[in-house]
Amino acid sequence: MSTGTLEHDAAMQPTEAAADPARATRFGWLRGIRSVKVIVGLVIVLVFALVAIFGPLLVSTDPSAVSNDILHAPSAHHLLGTSHNGQDIFAEMIYGTRVSMVVGFVAAILATILSLVVGLTAGYLGGVSDEVLSLITNIFLVIPGLPLVVILTGTMPNAGELAIVIVIAVTAWAWGARVLRAQTLSLRKRDFVEAARASGESTFRIIFREILPNETAIVAATFLSTVIGAILTQASLAFLGLTSVTDWSWGVILYWAQTQNAMSYGAWWWFVPPGLSIALIGTGLSLMNFGIDEFINPRLRSAGIATKRARKRAAGTRSRTGRPARPVAEPAAAGDGAAARGDVVLEIKDLRVDYLSGDSTVRAVDGVSLSLRRGTVLGIAGESGSGKSTLAYAITRLHESAAEIPTGQILYTAADGKRTDILRMSDRELTDFRWEELAIVFQSAMNALNPILKIGVQIEDAIAAHRPSMSERQRRERVAELLTMVGISTDRTTAYPHELSGGMRQRVMIAIALALNPEIIVMDEPTTALDVVIQRQIIDQIMELKDRLGFSVIFITHDLSMLIELADEIAIMYAGRIVEQASAQDFYRAPSHPYSRGLIGSFPTLSGSKRELTGIVGSPPDLRALPTGCSFSPRCPSVTDECRVREPLLLPLPRVGEPTTPAVDATSPGTRVACLLYQNSEPVAAAEADRS
């Protein structure tokens, strides 16, 4: 069975893409209006829209023309009766529909534009911009809406339609801006936005290509709500006589009915039609709201059909079995000595990463020194909170604004031998460097892929950001080549992320990372949440591509058993520090640090006698209050009094009978360990004095 067969079959079952992808793409939006409520709402709004557009052109009666037919009930001659001046109510309603609809929709458009500008800017840029715009938004939110509208309208006697539209838009944008800001804040740090930023896309493109489409449902719902509010506001102002009472609208009709005591005369036909029209248009717009998510979200759009199709196939689905999880096994011989043969492509020197929170500082990465050799895999393992992902984000310069790097170097050596410190790159240099020389595969593929863009489009975006000269045809060919390379059929180019299995989504992320043939790929737990069979397929795919294309990998994971098979070198992190670094073979055969032995003891062996899994007692320390001396001392089974007062350095492991040398070189081969059990006190003390 091919690498991607299981995933391909599993992903294809709940979708209809296999039948006719082009047809599904072309007519997929129709599924959003299959709800009866949505159809009813669309019909109501469409009827009013047609009346507003064509009604005044088809009605020959002047709504302002007076006659002797005073207060006549509805009849064949006057379909909705007449007013106190003999004016035709039907003609007034037709002309009034146009005014009310135009005011409602135009005011909603302007208010929505203001909401988008303020909400997106405040949420994405943050900082001072967010504070100022949020302050303005909050001021408009706390001011009562209708009284403010009345006051503003009152300053403009005989206000026309344009003035009413502006007043309504100015007073109606704040709520939508607040919602959009909150949504933007939640989206701007999502992995697919970080990936777009890392690939070099401009701020404008990120906002309008990555973030805004994911807020379309909110924007649409806000717009429809604002239309309802604007129509009601215009009707209220007209009813109070604050607008021109000669420009017919639903509110003006109600104004004249109220001032002429239509209720007293029993002239129900005068006030019922405009009131009923306001209620109907509000109902229609509200019903349309029910279908917005399904209309916009491709996952919800196909949910109903996919569920039915899955049920039909359920009876005929054949069972599938996969290989069991692999326990700890010896690393492949092919990796022996690989690190020693390659030259250093990335060297990290004494890197520190701090998280700032108010007046306190938390050091998440503390003095890390590592090296990655060309064409090899450097594995980084440790418990949650050990600093692995923070290190990955620091290498790619994607760390959050709350994080800063006070000291350290991250030196990249290009193929021509030129060395560059990534931490000293300008924004322009960093944009060119990412994806060209260094790419990242994020932890969760579903979060890293934009849910409303097809996977082919997302791969193209990474290419277009760095290869603007490539034609559209060349980009499509490259997308097909990349999908084939990672074991995905090219007919999945038009699929959305939710239409793929977890393994296929992770393969898409690998394809995006490989789009520009980088020298280094950082993989932050790329197999998280995948079952063991798919994990194995993904790992095999990564290794096959690495050998074929020659890139280097920094692989971060919790799964030490997998890392031993995969990596050439392994670094173990604890409390932000490297506590042991060794070749995969040496680490598997003789882990040196007590923490490393505890991690190894947490996994079963593949061969040999059975043993009890030991694990590690206790929990990782709070980085805000690390214990004195060795951070692992409260959990260490071999702790001494010296461990509780002295912090061990990461030093080469001495041979039997030899003292520990204080020289530390992250590029030199051999095992390095940060443990006082192996360190002679005198040279170590000298090294500590030099360090301080």
TrEMBL record:
Region (Disordered): 307-334
Organism phylogeny: Bacteria, Bacillati, Actinomycetota, Actinomycetes, Micromonosporales
InterPro entries, alphabetized: AAA+_ATPase, ABC_Ni/Peptide_Import, ABC_transporter-like_ATP-bd, ABC_transporter-like_CS, MetI-like, MetI-like_sf, Oligopep_ABC_C, OppC_N
Gene Ontology MF terms in the entry: ATP binding; ATP hydrolysis activity
Stretches with biased composition (Basic residues): 308-323
Primary location group: membrane
Domain of life: Bacteria
Protein family: Belongs to the ABC transporter superfamily.
Membrane topology, from the record: Multi-pass membrane protein; Peripheral membrane protein
Biased composition annotated in UniProt, kind: Low complexity: 324-334
One GO term of the biological process aspect: peptide transport
Protein name: Peptide ABC transporter ATP-binding protein
